[in-house]
Write a structure and sequence with these properties.
alpha/beta, 3-stranded mixed β-sheet, 171 residues
Length: 171
Amino acid sequence: MERVATLVGVAVALLLAAVMLPEVAAVRYMVGAGMGNGWATNVNYTVWAQDKHFYNGDWLFFVYDRNQLNVLEVNETDYESCNSDHPLVNWTRGAGRDVVPLNVTRPYYFISGKGFCYGGAKLAVNVENAPPPPVASPEKSGSPASFYGGRIVLPTVFAVGAMWDAFLRFC
């Protein structure tokens, strides 16, 4: 009986922690989605990327023919000249479905070697920090909404209710 109460308490604590954590909104972009077969030649990836904002924590998902193309991260000079001789990172894992984490705020440059860069298999993205969340409009001081805003009171009510329910069921 004591063990069940402990498990319920831990579950409630985890639930409270999950409710109070800010939402994480990382996005996984399939490279070239909507413009053809993913990572391929004869696709203008500058056009594909121009209306997207890439933020720290997002992911790029490259889908391609593994027998022909690959995914190489290079510097800007090698990107411009399609030089695949000295990649910074070879993201190719052999299955033709490679995921690249964008976890540093900086420009990233990707090309496909074997000459396919000259056919258009190249992508440059600039990764930024996510914008801050919107600021809530100010409330009148002393109004009930300023105290019962739901940040502390609402999760506390749910936690007390869950503990009371557990107490009634197991006692």
